[in-house]
Design brief:
The protein has 657 residues and is α/β, with parallel strands linked by helices. Helix content is 56%, strand content 9%. Its main location: membrane.
């Protein structure tokens, strides 16, 4: 019997990510489709910020309003420009998106890379940073709930500018749109991108045209491109500028979505879309609004719509409403990626994940997360009822995640790339100081609503670390009950316990090659029967998105190549749908007299665990109950591993945590 093994896969963090093309002839069309899809899925959030950002910054109803003066307008526009340059263009597009796990991005991919490269040395630092990263991922999930609520609400509220009598229809219309948006998610990001992408191309074109019109009326605003205006505003008027930073965060709230959605479309399409369309359009529009405000400070309220001539404002309102609905898509897709990776890395239960594209492996749909987000978004809509009420909460989760990503990136740059310390202390230190300053400014809004994303993030973080700890407890107890696999197999060979041999193949899914599956023990000790071919199988999820077939199977004859009992390890990437029957078809038994696994009528055995809260001090009592409650959302194992229902037997047992 031969075991199909392979060398450790090369470090994927520096390799170019796949762009999803399947053939040379289709490469150009695929790249264009990914580019358009990225515009529709990734950039909705950051692309709609010009609608409300400036009027929020100069909002007189803010607890810390920024006076509308010439110096302040120049300073704010300059700060917006350089924030987009430094945080989005340089940091995310230029640096962070080069760190990926075979094309998968997001904070969970960073955690995977750090865990991999911190083994052996710096283990404590790696564990601490991994925990910090989990909290960042939890914050992003919180933002995934707030963004759709405020985006759709702000869009529908625009009807008041057309007819104030329509105000009573805002909440019902918002609910209908949100339900429709989440119901459409099952079609996949590829289909959504094809619908939303062309709309966003029109949107960014309109942003640029409106901005150019505003700039032509007051070209002096172009002086704000100089960093001196940002520096003078920040340090010359620090008491005002500091509080303005909390609202300036609104201009780059979608930055983390660029990284989280990288697995859906690839780095290059996302980067090109930003550099050649999104960033220029945003910059022109902010400059145009700034010019309009310089012309008349009374233009602050509704500065975005006032850029358009009066005859175009109703069409612009329709386009704006559509674009803000699309804005919710960026964080929804990012939430799927984060939840999927967290599940495969052991921070969430096993979730049912649907891969929605045959051409690009990163496009997924996670039903449980989708409906959880929908219920959460609707709850926020009914609780807050207006976008203004949610405005102070918006952005806190994003800047918190950005600060954590900055810390993780600097650590990885040091331990993996060997970046000189002086570079990290200067460039990295300045970048971290900038992001921390934004975080400090946003924290001043905690009592005004910023507590909400922190509460959601803390709740998600508690669930994830509780699940990780609970898995460790259950795994240890299960391993104790199962006992050593080789010792059990040796007893089987000696006829202990006595069991009649039945024809066919029995496949027993276990947790590894060191312990005997509970279902196998039950079959021999209770039923006193064993199959002519017994396969003990464990599924191993690798910290890479996918595994090639020639590296998928590892066969262990358990010390006797002529015996009918073997152990098979099947390796899947965390972005793959585990198909166990298909993978078993790759098993080779060449040295066993030409025998092959007879899988056409194979019977599959699963061990299921019923959890109970025990008296052992493994966790706090409330965490035990939380772990048990969370376990109920685990997807069906037979469905997850693509096992045939009519040939799958489930054996249950109880474990106390």
């Amino acid at each position: 019997m031969t075991a199909q093994t392979s060398a450790d896969p090369a470090d994927p963090s520096l390799a170019p990510p796949p762009d999803g093309s399947r053939s040379t002839s289709a490469r150009g069309a695929t790249r264009l489709a990914l580019l358009v899809g990225a515009l529709g899925v990734v950039y909705g959030d950051i692309g709609t910020s010009p609608i409300y950002a400036l009027q929020t910054i100069f909002n007189p109803g803010d607890p810390h309003p920024v006076p509308t003066s010439v110096d302040n307008v120049y300073g704010v526009i300059s700060l917006i420009f350089w924030s987009l340059v430094l945080i989005v263009t340089v940091f995310y597009v230029g640096l962070v998106m080069r760190l990926h796990n075979e094309g998968e991005g997001g904070i969970m991919a960073l955690i995977t890379l750090i865990r991999r490269h911190s083994q052996g040395r710096g283990r404590k630092a790696g564990l601490f940073l991994a925990g910090l990263g989990i909290f960042g991922a939890a914050l992003f999930l919180g933002d995934s709930m707030i963004t759709p609520a405020i985006s759709v609400l702000s869009a529908v509220e625009g009807v008041k500018t057309v007819n104030p009598d329509l105000e009573t229809f805002i909440i019902p219309a918002t609910v209908v749109i949100i339900v429709g948006l989440f119901a459409f998610q099952r079609k996949g990001t590829a289909v959504i991108g094809r619908w939303f992408g062309p709309i966003m191309i029109v949107w960014f074109t309109v942003l640029a045209v409106l901005g150019l019109g505003g700039i032509s009326r007051n070209p002096e605003i172009l002086r704000a491109l100089s960093p001196t205006y940002a520096v003078d505003f920040l340090f010359g008027h620090f008491g005002v500028a500091f509080f303005a930073l909390a609202a300036i965060i609104l201009t780059f709230t979608g930055a983390e979505a660029l990284y989280a959605d990288m697995g859906h479309f690839g780095r290059k399409p996302i980067s090109r879309a930003w550099l050649f369309m999104v960033f220029p359009a945003l910059l022109l529009n902010y400059m145009g609004q700034g010019a309009l405000i310089l012309e008349d400070t009374g233009n602050v309220q509704g500065s975005f719509f006032l850029l358009a001539p009066e005859w175009a404002r109703i069409p612009l309102l329709v386009l704006t409403g559509t674009a803000t609905v699309i804005a919710a898509q960026a964080v929804i897709s990012g939430a799927y990626s984060v939840a999927s990776q967290a599940s495969e890395l052991g921070y969430l239960p096993r979730l049912r994940i649907a891969h929605t594209s045959e051409h690009h492996y990163g496009q997924i749909y996670v039903p449980w997360i989708n409906w959880l987000l929908m219920v959460s978004v609707l709850t926020l809509v009914f609780a807050f009822r207006t976008s203004e009420a949610l405005a102070f909460a918006y952005g806190m989760a994003v800047i918190g995640t950005i600060v954590i990503v900055t810390v993780l990136f600097l650590y990885f740059a040091r331990v993996r790339w060997g970046t000189p310390r002086w570079v990290l202390w200067t460039g990295g230190g300045l970048l971290l100081a900038l992001n921390v300053t934004f975080l400090a400014a946003s924290s001043t809004k905690i009592i005004h609503g910023a507590w909400l994303p922190l509460l959601i993030g803390l709740t998600a973080f508690t669930v994830m670390i509780t699940w990780q700890r609970g898995r460790e407890v259950v795994s240890a107890e299960r391993e104790r009950r199962e006992g050593p696999l080789r010792e059990f197999v040796d007893k089987m060979r000696r006829g202990e316990p006595k069991a009649a041999q039945v024809p066919g193949t029995g496949v027993y899914l276990g947790r590894g090659k060191d312990s005997a599956p509970l279902a196998l023990r039950a079959a021999l000790e209770l039923n006193h029967a064993r199959y002519a071919q017994t396969v003990i199988l464990s599924v191993q999820t690798e910290p890479v998105p996918r595994v090639h077939d020639d590296e998928r199977i590892i066969v262990d004859d358990l010390g006797n190549c002529q015996d009918s009992v073997i152990h098979v390890t099947v390796r899947f990437g965390y972005a793959e749908t585990p198909d166990v029957p298909r993978a078993l078809g790759l098993v080779s038994l060449e040295q066993s007299e030409g025998r092959k696994l007879r899988l056409d009528k194979a019977t599959y055995f699963l061990s299921t665990i019923q959890l109970r809260a025990g008296k052992a001090r493994t966790m706090a009592a409330w965490r035990k109950h939380l772990f048990i409650a969370t376990s109920h959302i685990t997807s069906d194992a037979a469905e997850h591993f693509q096992l045939p229902r009519d040939r799958t037997i489930i054996v249950g047992s109880h474990i106390e945590v």
